[in-house]
Write a structure and sequence with these properties.
Distance between the termini of chain A: 40 Å
Strand content of chain B: under 5%
Largest interface: A-B, 89 and 97 residues
Strand content of chain A: under 5%
Distance between the termini of chain B: 12 Å
Helix content of chain A: over 70%
Number of strands of chain A: 0
Structural class of chain B: mainly alpha
Order of helices and strands of chain B: HHHHHHH
Shape of chain B: globular
Largest sheet of chain B: none
Number of strands of chain B: 0
Oligomer: heterodimer
Structural class of chain A: mainly alpha
Radius of gyration of chain A: 17 Å
Largest sheet of chain A: none
Shape of chain A: globular
Number of helices of chain B: 7
Helix content of chain B: 55-70%
Chain lengths: 126, 174
């Protein structure tokens, strides 16, 4: 029960922060990243997420299906299989000096590096 | 595989208890006294969630752009935030242990050793690939939705489906 309240709190906190605690300047990203994203038609840096990607229009395409449905599935399935996520392993696990968490965190990084460099570009070009 | 661990609460040790509960639920350290209290005591978890949500957004760790930078090794941002969080965690754990701090309800705080199985490495790899695609791990998914990206609701439903499928396949996975 408590976790539903906590998740609800995160939604509210993010709503408050993004509506009342943000500066109007666009987010600055690494030049190499924006250069690459331009090729795929992503050039809107007004929000923390690319609005051109995170829209209902994208959802009903192959790209959106993979980004939201498959992507979400991998996050949920992987987090349970790994026995924790970024907070559980990378932050709390390392804070309590547990070597399994270090190994799992390294696997997070390997998975993410392969995905961001080789899979995401393919998905963006769909 | 049926667990052959002794389930008698009198003799159940802490690490076994952690193992069993972590296999069956995400909340392995939930308070055991909440059930006896009125529903509104849960508002304190909501307050903690609000603070966490604000921190996630203001530190920009919920940003899909920042996640791409991290995994493309183009920016120090995410490593800095996570690194500071680890340092704060180490100090907090040290202080909690040193002063034997109790929870708000007076329950003692225990840190259980994590059990390691090889499958966690595969799970970690899968999680990493998903993290780079969605630009969010589980907590930030809720923050992305709170920021007004309603389509992330689909990702959340899908992530929950993923945890559920894991539950179905658990016995068959390495």
């Amino acid at each position: 029960m408590w976790n539903l309240f906590f998740a609800g709190g995160v939604v509210i906190g993010a709503f408050l922060a993004s509506n009342f605690l943000m500066t109007p300047e666009p987010i600055e990203v690494a030049p190499a990243l924006s250069e690459d994203l331009k090729q795929y038609g992503i050039n809107d840096y007004s929000r923390l997420l690319p609005a051109q990607l995170f829209s209902w229009d994208t959802l009903f395409s192959l790209k959106g299906l993979i980004f939201f449905v498959i992507g979400g599935f991998l996050v949920g399935f992987g987090a349970r299989y790994a026995g924790g996520c970024t907070s559980g392993h990378a932050i709390m696990g390392l804070s309590t000096l547990q070597w399994p968490s270090l190994l799992v965190t390294i696997m997070f990084m390997i998975g993410g590096i392969i995905s961001a460099n080789f899979i995401v570009p393919i998905l963006l070009s769909l | 595989m049926k667990s052959n661990i002794d389930l008698n609460p009198q003799t159940l040790d802490r690490d076994q208890d952690f193992l069993i509960r972590s296999q069956n639920a995400q909340c392995i350290n939930a308070s055991r006294v909440d059930d006896t209290k009125p529903w509104y005591v849960n508002l304190r978890y909501m307050a903690a969630g609000v603070l966490f949500g604000i921190a996630l957004v203001k530190s920009e760790v919920v940003s899909w752009f920042r996640i791409q930078e991290m995994f493309r090794l183009e920016s120090f941002h995410m490593y800095g935030v996570i690194g500071v969080a680890v340092v704060v965690g180490i100090v907090s754990v040290f202080l909690i242990k040193k002063f034997n701090a109790k929870t708000i309800d007076g329950e003692s705080i225990v840190f259980s050793k994590k059990r390691f199985i090889k499958g966690q490495l595969i799970g970690g790899f899968i999680f990493g690939t998903g993290w780079a695609i969605t630009g969010a791990c589980p907590g930030p998914l809720f923050a992305q939705m709170g920021m007004g990206f309603a389509v992330v609701g689909v990702t959340i439903v899908s992530a929950i489906a993923g945890t559920w499928v894991y539950g179905l396949l658990r016995e068959k996975l390495p």
